[in-house]
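cron nightly-structures :: item 1 of 1
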Amino acid sequence: MPYDPRLVQPMRDEMTRMGAKELTAVPEVDAALGDSRGTMLVFVNSVCGCAAGSARPALTLALRHPNRPEQVVTVFAGQDVDAVARARQYFSDYAPSSPSMALLRDGEVVHFVHRHMIEGRSPDQIAQDLTAAFDRYCQPTTA
């Protein structure tokens, strides 16, 4: 059963404030990920404490880096069940995990952050790992 929308709204708002596009339905996921070009970060959002305490703040920090994905999208585990399931099909080589982050380049996963790589780590540590991946796979952005 999905979480109460009122419970997750602040977590959704946090993502959209950092510029992420919400994907709440399967057609939106397919449109965004189906034939993507360039770099995209897919954030599987969650009510999990490590999402609130480390993952979302880490992503906020990492997106301040000059090299960053051209697009950031998000699906919400425990809320947008079908959209999350479809998104996970695009990175099915990785075990389902929430929160998690998949960095794609031209539709291929080039870096993946599992929940176990988030738990017990500070936002700064996670952001450092993300920016290292951004430096390797993304071009500088001007926005």
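cron nightly-structures :: done
The two ends are 38 Å apart (CA to CA).
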